[in-house]
Amino acid sequence: MKTLLWATLSANGNYAQSGPGNPPKPEALADFAAQAAAAGNFIAGRRTFEAMRGNGGAGGPFAALDIVVVSRNAGELPGATVVRSPEEALAYLAERGHETALIGGGAEIHNAFLGAGLADEAVFNVAPVLEGKGLNLLIDTEHYACKQVRLLDCKPLGGGVVQLRYGIERE
Ligand SMILES: NC(=O)c1ccc[n+]([C@@H]2O[C@H](COP(=O)([O-])OP(=O)(O)OC[C@H]3O[C@@H](n4cnc5c(N)ncnc54)[C@H](OP(=O)(O)O)[C@@H]3O)[C@@H](O)[C@H]2O)c1
């Protein structure tokens, strides 16, 4: 199964965070909805899923999708299937017949997939915002590491958001 890691980055290269003072760009949100609809699913960390649910975002256009929440501790979460690891999330979606898994974030989940070498492509939407101290997207959260990736596509999405798509070779 192909795994597609989807993330919004800030213009200064941080892993973009959203909140009341910095709502997600509508163009980036619309792109996530389109990518999730195309995949028929998305995988989220427990904190991101709970934030989406708090904003009423896990229903609506996402109601028909297979939503998989990765958590070490959570019990049942309405509207989602809870699994204990990135590998289990992919096994669940493969068993359900999905050909692509969309990894929607947040940072800890993205870094877990990247660290385990489980991403085949990365879609980065660079938003026109500069951030201070925050979150990072990392292939190794403890040591310096570096991996070449292949630029597959680059296009503006409107509203100052630019989409970069990269191919990632698995080891
Ligand atoms: N830039 C973007 O594209 C984007 C996308 C989504 C969210 N965000 C931002 O990201 C932030 C939230 O991200 P976050 O890093 O705090 O949280 P997160 O990745 O959404 O969720 C973290 C939780 O996932 C579970 N988890 C993480 N790694 C795991 C593993 N290897 N195995 C099993 N479970 C694991 C744990 O859940 P338990 O504690 O339940 O065990 C952990 O507390 C917010 O600021 C949000 O705005 C940004």
UniProtKB/TrEMBL annotation:
Taxonomy, superkingdom: Bacteria
All copies of domain Bacterial bifunctional deaminase-reductase C-terminal, residue ranges: 26-162
Entries under InterPro entries matching the protein: DHFR-like_dom_sf (IPR024072), RibDG_C (IPR002734)
Gene3D superfamilies, per the entry: Dihydrofolate Reductase, subunit A
Pfam (any one): RibD_C
Name the UniProt record assigns to this protein: Dihydrofolate reductase family protein
